[in-house]
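Why predict the complex rather than its parts? Because the way molecules touch one another can change local conformation, and only a joint prediction can capture that. The input here totals 290 residues.
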Amino acid sequence: MATTTATLRLSSSDLQPGNTLSINATSTLMKAGLTTGLTQVESGVISLALETESRLGPLGTEISGGVHDIASWLYLCNKATDDTYYIDWGIHETNIGKLYAGDWMFIPWSASDDVAAIELEAQVAAQTIEYAFFNSNFILAADAGA
Amino acid sequence: MATINATVSISSDISSYPVRINNSMTMKKAGSCHGLDETTGLRTKKFTSTTDAVIVEHDELTDDKAHKVYIRNTSSSKENYFYIAYNASAAAATTAETIGKLYGGDWMLFPYDGNVNIVAASSTTDTQVLEYMVFADGIVAAAG
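Output of the joint prediction:
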């Protein structure tokens, strides 16, 4: 069984004077509701065109058996270095946040319905992202010419 | 200006070429080189029902900014979980804005624009505790 582990360290000595912030969290990522590890990974580095909405990863309908509410994880990093650059990220036409240059994020993504998809749109300029999906349910899309 | 550092390490042996991700960021204000210097504080909430609850109220935060949200399910059960959603109403499960499910021990950290609430719902009536913290790019003072 494969083992995927994600560890977070949050720290600040001056956010709350007299109270040093130190949070450490480690999780071993499992299949939904089980104690067996994830079995698939997809990763890459891609460029996002300016102000062009792009989908990252599959739609809910492209998940094995059409199941939803899976245990899937996304790591995403904006590789830009200009502090004014950012990428709007969201799910299904709903913006949730702005991933600024140098920032990373890590979220569970459950593809809650058929149209759920991770959507990205670079603002200010074209930008490059680094990403990794960890899961166990994705299938390749059918060949349209088959 | 405060300095808040967040470091992630992910390792996996799913593929023949082991995945090793190590990255750090210093949380900054939107479009700026200056660090975030406000927080709603570290909070914990015990859930004993499946009723949805707003854990981050967007009214407390400046809209359209570069807030960061940390959330962790502190329980150890890999059967039970919390739905986490970006939603105006207190509904977290299977909406178009459901982000994902946090099983026992799982955590997430994501940029948040502060425009809509963050909502959680437990999958069980067993006791589960959610730990969360907003690193804010602007907190709106409550009206007197």
